Amino acid sequence: MKPLFREGGPYHIRRTGHEQYSMSISIPADADGLTGRECPSGTCSPGYFKVKGGTGLSGQIEAFCPYCRHAEKPGNFATKAQQRYVKEIAVRETHKGIQQMIGDGLGLGPGGSKHIGSGFLTLELKYKPGPLPHVSRPIGEELRRDVTCPFCGLEHAVYGLAVWCADCGRDIFMAHVEKEFSVVKAMLGDVERRRNELGNRVAARDVENALEDTVSIFEAVLRALTRRHLKNLGRSEEEIDDVMAKRVANRYQNIESASELVKKELGVDLFAGYDVSVVEGLKRTFEKRHPITHNLGIVDRKYLEKARSGELQGREIRVTAAEVQASIELVTAVVAGVHCRLFPAPEGA
To answer: Quick check: pTM over 0.70?
Structure first.
């Protein structure tokens, strides 16, 4: 009897024993050369990320989840979609082998038919195999954040603020933060072109959106640092969730309350070493977010009471690209300082 599988082919099939075979199936990468990976820990969220082959460390025996730093052999980070893809290919190749064995057993020709007898009585035997099982390509999510590890050079993508490099396992949290802000900077850099092409109102909305994004990133980064700090203190996930919901809530959106909360919860001064006038300037810029988000950019009484500015109620708030750009630079430096004080790099790293 002929073997079930033909050796060789695109999957480099090889017979390793009695009815035992090995296949080499490559996991397809996306258009940018990135391959999906998934944290083996059942509790990690979001758990999914991508890496680019040929970058980062070579021959490493241990890989890391960029979100929770769970460590295992690199091969154990295959996604469920990739595992399904491999199984479906193996099943399809098995079906092909069985179909070939049936054809060979019946003595059918290349056309899948065989003629029996001759003359007055002739029988034609035909075998029409069914369709081969479908194989679904393991397509990953596209709305990703691309980053390159500053230590080992791994090019990878995540789907939320991450901390660790998937190859070398080092803390690259600030690389992720800077990548987030780079998107906002790119938006600001395109404001003048959009002003010339689409008008002042569109350009003003672009700047306002950039300010909203800056405040959102600031809040998300402080929330991430708070969660990590509390986890390092040994707090349970339930305790951390309770702190985030009841004591943190949305207080990181405001410079004054953020400073107070960081001091209380993290034990560090958010604006250590910064002049009061610099902090006040950032506070004024952040407070412009309120009328932008909640009142279509129109100055209202609540904003005037908090900002104590000379702007007139009922007028549109004014925020410039330079103002937002300066806020990004300051916020980046501030959160980098907090990160460094809370999670200093190991000696020699």
So the answer is: yes
